[in-house]
Amino acid sequence: MRAGLICLALTILATASAHADDLQKLSQDPKQWVMAAHDYANTRFSPLDQINTSNVGKLQVAWMFSVGTRRGQEAAPLIVDDTMYVVSSYPNKVFALDPVSGDLKWTYIPYQDRAAQGVACCDVVTRGIAYDDGKIFLATLDNHIVALDAKTGREQWSTKTGDINLGETTTDAPLVVKGKVFVGISGGELGVRGRITVLDENSGKIDYVAYSTGPDKDVKIGPDFKPFYDFMKGQNLGETTWPPDAWKIGGGTVWGWFSYDPSLNLVYYGTANPGPWNANQRPGDNLWTSTVFARDPDSGEAHWAYQLNPHDLWDHDEIQENVLLDLDIGGKTRKVLVHPGRNGYMYVIDRQTGEVISADPYDTVNAYKGVDLKSGRIIPNKDLEPDLGRMVRDVCPASPGAKDWQPSAWSPRTKLLYVPHQHLCMNFKTSDVGYIAGTPYVGATVDMFAGPGGYRGEFMAWDPVQRKKVWSIKENMPVWSGALVTAGDVAFYGTMDRWFKAVDAKDGKVLWQFHTGSGIIAQPVTYQGADGVQYVAVLTGVGGWPGVVANAQVDPRVRNGALGFTGATQDLPTYTQGGGELLVFAIPKPAQAAGGQPAQPK
Amino acid sequence: MKLVKAAAAFLLLASPAFGQPNTSSQMGLPVEPNASPRSGAGLPEIQANPGGVAPFSASANPILHVPVSDLHPGNVALSAHIDNPLADDPQAVTRGMRDFNHFNCVGCHAPNGGGGMGPSLSDRRYIYGSSAPNLFLSIYQGRPNGMPAWGDVLPESTIWELVAYVQSLAEPAGKNFGRTISRAPPSPDIQQTPTEYVQTTHPWSFTEPFSNGQQPSGQ
Asked: Is residue A189 among the annotated active site residues?
């Protein structure tokens, strides 16, 4: 009996690790794209090089597919075993398509509570789906995690992980690690208590929940927890760095990216802003909001944390991607994570310890005066403190930060990080706000506008070792799409004013661009089809926080709309409307007609 | 159950007449006020309660006569004349503005009703109707795509204050049927003076040139 138990335990262990190995291995197959961020390190680098700097100018549309919704499309398509999986904005339909022909294999329609749309802060987007072990994992806006048979689209299980009547929605792309589905929660503008929920991929049972605020046991802070900096050492700081009970409605939501280092067995992710935005109502550091966590995926226990913005004043979430790299710094190879901060600083952090190696501004910053590497604390600009009811002018970066959710890409060939981001400043005024469950809990009036120079976005290449911008392309609108870079030394991104662009990864020269049907705020991917051809795919369909002025009933003449983003993108409707469509590009074979092919009788 | 039966009987009786052309108004002509009586609508005689006595009387509740649709079968419009009971209270709009902030309406519909999480209230476009009772019902009952139902939370007087304020946010009616959006010539060419500069119950009284995403003048 005992031997049987041990045997069983070993089998379970073996199965669990096989899962991790499988997805890790799959992600190394250059033909596929098996998770939104391409790989556990979140590089968004593809080793494919058929499309390169010399021929990218010949890219043409191979096929298209309408996802049938007009709100913002932020998701990345997945390509697994010669099937492409695409998810739309609310109601989050999932489509399985042939990656070469574009034929539709199956469609899954979740029957969501449509009232969920009313508690989604910043358009009804999703950032993607996940795959593992023959299953697709969908996170719906109304907080259902659903497992689908990847072959048939049949529902395997669904588990509810949040409540719209508490203002909770789910918008992040889940990630599967060791047979567990990791998913966050959104609603930092509605007093949602941030957390991750971790589910068994086979049963849908919740394995554990790790909160971003509250007592240590809820945050899963225990004996393994060793933060690098003193200000994060102590008991129950997720409770004591708040006014009484404020942590229960204090935000720290999780709606960005998970990354995973199999060798250290640590999962990394960032938490969002504290609530409400009016910081006068929550004296204290407000741990563990605006924080990067490193956790053991098996137990959920935190190993270290680093709070980027103690007592955040400006809605500076830190949910951005943590790109896991091994870099030669100061003559040593350091295992780091690179985190482009919403606060405008590019962080290089030791991913074993949480020590900040460097933090350098990559856009206009006046809200802070730098990061003190000794204490680990960012230095706020006292002149801009938003006392209650006092209008503070020209704060940079604005609330969405120098960069929001839109993920960067890293090329091991150029050793550069390709960062899509925005360039915005704002006027900001706080007011008292009361908490009413299921309604916005903000307490700030915001009015954003273009930063110095009048442009609103930038696509830049950053060298994290030299700690400098190598090249950049200034864009009229915020660059709200993700980045992709390939071994062909081509980087791809899209713009809100309807351009899909390919640029030389070495110098930023624009090599090709295509005017799409709607603006782009999604994540481009690349893959190789069964026909041996390299394809590039991206969803179009403008939206997201900066884009609701063009895809929903939002008045461009009222600058404080959309939590102040209307001010910065009020002219977007003169460039684009909403409308979700997948575009797939390839270089046509010489005999093929441009932009299509002669119909063949079957 | 009785209600369902009554409705079915009504449909059976009434359906042949529904396809008949409506003679009381014609396309291409200016709209005339039309008090079309039921007898002139081509509807057959209808027995009021074929299954017996209805469990409640909708006609006793005037607010139930407020249509949310502009389509009236048989061209017989529901008639409801419900005015905001606070119409003569000059302070109602100011209290409504305070309520709009206190109850976090501002979080979704934005300062001055510019819209964001919820639809704008500033441009005379209302998904569920623009009359005072339409707005009252939208707040009271909620609406299915994300508007919460406030009826059990707020006193009716507060909802009427909100209605007064929401109506003060709407831009004055212009002469155009639609709206043109273009970069050159610029359209729109004005924006409201943002609320960090001016807080007012009548935001369309304070405007400045449209700034295309650049810093506002705040004048």
From this structure: yes
